[in-house]
Amino acid sequence: MICSLEHETFLLYIVRVKRFSFPAALLLALLVGVALGRYTISPRSLQPASPAATPFPALSKSAGIAAAPKVAEKSSLPAESAADTGGGDIVASFRRAMAGSGTRHNLAAFSKLMESVNATNLPDVLSFAESLPKDDKSTTLLALLVSHWAEFDPQSAVNYAQHANVGSSRNWLLNSALTGWAVHDLAAASAWTEQLPPGQMRDQAMQTVVSSLAEKDPQRAISFVENLPAGRNRQNLYWPIFSRWSASDPTAAATAAAQLPAGSTRDNAFQIIGSTWANQDPEAAFAWANNLPASQARNNTLQNILSNWAGKDPEKAAAIVVNMPNGVARDQSITNIAQRWAQNDPRAALAWTQSLPAGELQNKSLRSVLVSWVQSDPTAAAAFVEKLPPGKAQQDAALAISMQLANSDVQSALSWAQRLPDGPARQTAFANIISQWGDADPRSAAAFALQTTDKESRRVLLENVSRQWARLDPQAAINWAENLPDAAARDTVLPNIISSLVDSDPRQATSLVSRLSSGEAQANAASMIVGQWAAEDPQAASKWAMSFPENTTRQRALESLATRWAQSDSYAAAGWLGTLGQGPSRDAAVGAFARQLASADPAAAAQWAETIGNEDSRNGQIETIVRNWMTTDSNKAVAWINASSLSAEMKARLISTQ
Fold this sequence. Notes:
The chain is mainly α. It has a domain of 184 residues.
């Protein structure tokens, strides 16, 4: 289905085609493709469908809307076309028009012939349109035909559009009919639209009515919208009003927008006016927006204006923006101008960017230039990055270039990154390329990472690709990792795979811990698994953690478990701690539990810390808890110290910190 903007532009063409000379109206239509999409319509009677089959309110007197009168054929036709109103003649004329090539020719011919379509020959023309191959020409013809039909018999045209077998394009066809109706009788079209049930069809129909009203009387269109029920759909209706109004009289549109209540509706109206006005007279638009009250709406409007201005005259826009006061609007506008300028003249945009004061804004603007430049000339943009001095600017530039190159050609991106000198920029480029490559082909990306000779780069790349692979296909990632002959590489990738796997299958994640070669790697993995698993099932996590012998892995696992469990259910965690026997792993768990309690209940935290078996660990934990306690409630802290079983020396030292 054509997007809403395309719908509206074509419908605008239908509204204006009788008000302007044809060439001017045609230019409006050529702004977009007018294809409705593929459709299939079976030939049907032109009589309205039965009320029972109508999914929306029928056009009838009982619904409060009188059926539109049918205009007499002879009186409705221009004199010069009255001779060509027979079904056979008019169909032959449309057939000849279909033979022409090009949208411009077809629209011109169709619009001229529509003047000769009336109630008598309409069935023949409609049957002809339905019999055509389904392409842009036939869909354009059908839309114009339904819109013209609605001018003299809106009831039949709208009912036809409602029941046409056009799939997702039915709403669009209905809006074509409604547009023709609105040209002929705006009041009746509005009344019919307002009785539609809430939904996409009503929203689009209301857009059509408001657009037609805005063409004739934008102030009345605003009043019409203001009388509708409040909500997001009503806010959306201001867009066609101010878009049209600002195209013909931006000063009046700006004055009307300023009278709207403060809020998102007025802010959006300002941005619509600014963008439209800037296409005609950017200097006047900027002068207006620059005098708006300071606000985010003003900033956004200025950014839109300057961005549009940069598309026409980037040098002028650049000269204006650097003289703006420092702030968000200036900074964002500078980066927008840099990117727009680079689309047409990247080297000029680059020269301007480099003239900006050194700092984050210059780096950000440089990235904007490179993002545009690399699309038109990736070789030149990459060569520029290679020559930058090492530092943040080069790193940011390398990131921008690598992202763009990797999107189109991974091998070219890798070749370019390999030419960069060793350092952070090179690592950044490779990491980003491998990350994107890993989404499409993780096995090839992993093979490349394994061949990297620099140890640090190899580690970073392997971590990135293993993490991505595990998210995409955990079993394939596991099989690859377990078959790595290099123990160091296996220790690098398995923790990332375990981390991705533990949320979906913690038991399988636990089976991989033993594949790690070093005790430190196993301890880190066990801590990670238990910490994540405890959020869902702390009892199962504790059972697995307790299966390790008394060693570093068990200590780290119990410490992680106590930390997470205390966050979710401190009473249950305390009960579990009471079941543990003395030893280093219990000390680690109690210490973690006490640290979690300390801010909310320092007395309980200190009491738990007193149960730690290792003296040095116990004293360290108590001292940390009590010192912090002293800063919040020294009286209670001192009372606890005096009543505790601490040594006299430690009591004196703690109290002296008061």
